Amino acid sequence: MNYRIEDKSAFEMFGVYGEISQDMEKAFVEVPRFRQQCDEDGSVDLINWLLGRFGNCVLHAALYDHTGDTFKYMIGYPLPQGIEIPDRLSKLTVPARTWAIFPDPLCDLQKLWRRIYTEWFPTSGYEQVEGPQFEMYYGMPGHTQGEIWIPVRLK
């Protein structure tokens, strides 16, 4: 499995979030539905407008505040300095962490999530630590590549 380990400084994300089921199979249905809702209600356009980007530029996603039953799924982007965000958007402070980063040029992240937890973690020598996880998307719709970032430490 292709991956790299990187240390990253703390940063802030901003965006809009929804509550998603912790059950992986339910989440795989709820997340695309939430992403579509954010396209339709103008949230994606607003975030891209604040960033000075085209409305159809792809955004990243943060998975955080896991309660056991649900987690927050934020569609957003790293917050540049000097941007004031409207009240309908939220901020997420991301601490400095070591990340296991899994690229996927085909952007089949649902399949990649399964492989990370069933194949990589059991044999990697790493364990997950507290902190948000990310689905990072690069490119334009129809020509998107992705990565999954998970905070880790050596066992």
Helix-strand sequence = EEHHEEEEHEEE
* Multimer state: single chain
Major beta sheet, specifics? Answer: 9 strands, antiparallel
Overall geometry comes to globular
The Rg value, from CA coordinates, equals 15 Å
Any overview of this molecule?
By secondary structure, this protein is of the alpha+beta class. It is 27% helix and 43% strand. It has three helices and nine strands. The chain has helices spanning 24-40, 43-51, 109-124; strands spanning 4-8, 11-21, 60-64, 70-78, 90-94, 97-104, 126-128, 133-140, 143-154. Strands 1, 2, 3, 4, 5, 6, 7, 8 and 9 form a nine-stranded antiparallel sheet that branches. Strand 8 and strand 9 form a beta hairpin. The longest helix is centred in the N-terminal third of the chain and has 17 residues, at 24-40. The chain is globular and about 45 Å long. The protein starts with a strand and ends with a strand. 25% of the residues are buried. The model has no long low-confidence stretch (mean pLDDT 94).
Compile the SSE list and pairings.
Layout: E1 4-8, E2 11-21, H1 24-40, H2 43-51, E3 60-64, E4 70-78, E5 90-94, E6 97-104, H3 109-124, E7 126-128, E8 133-140, E9 143-154
Antiparallel strand pairs: 1-6, 2-4, 2-5, 3-4, 3-8, 6-9, 7-9, 8-9
